[in-house]
Design a protein that fits this description.
mainly beta
């Protein structure tokens, strides 16, 4: 579920079910990143990463009715809404997302801590286009991964717990 808050921390509307509830509630992790026109919701279950684009503008906007229940509005039917989605295979134990800053296209980047290292994903502002670059830093001993941004580029880092060293790679602009 996703809850959108206003600038002072109050809910804009009721929580929105973005993804199905998995068997035994076995979601390994969830990460959310803001794009120019909404949010990208990324979760993991059973070897698959699931992404959904939750628009805040245009057709299908989660803010369109201001939270007022309407029996004729499918968005208020109580079940999961239909969002632009995609999936990809993943062994990630965690993920972190961040927008591409003021110099970028308005999308979001994600680093996933996979069993074989850090992988990178970029989602365009409309949520329908994504680029998965795969593993960008290889290490079977990765203990933590992080992502940062600067003017549309991303820095991805991976801490290797065996060598006690951190490796970093940067994307070009645009990704």
């Amino acid at each position: 579920f996703l809850t959108i808050l206003n600038s002072v921390g109050n809910p804009v509307r009721d929580s929105i079910q973005v993804a199905p509830v998995y068997l035994n509630n076995a979601v390994n992790w969830v990460s959310v990143g803001g794009v120019a026109n909404g949010f990208v919701f990324l979760s993991h279950n059973s070897g698959t990463a699931h992404a959904a684009f939750v628009p805040t503008t245009g057709a299908g906007s989660v803010l369109s009715d201001g939270g007022a229940p309407d029996a004729g509005d499918p968005a208020d039917a109580g079940g999961p809404r239909s969002f632009e989605t995609f999936t990809f295979p993943s062994t990630a134990g965690t993920a972190h997302m961040i927008s591409d800053d003021t110099g970028g296209a308005g999308g979001v980047g994600a680093v996933l801590l996979e069993q074989n290292g850090a992988s990178f994903l970029y989602v365009m502002p409309d949520g329908s286009t994504h680029m998965a670059t795969g593993t960008v830093i290889s290490s079977a001993n990765g203990a933590a991964a992080a992502i940062s941004n600067y003017r549309g580029s991303f820095a991805i880092s991976l801490y290797d717990s065996t060598s006690h060293a951190t490796q970093m790679v940067a994307t070009s602009c645009p990704p």
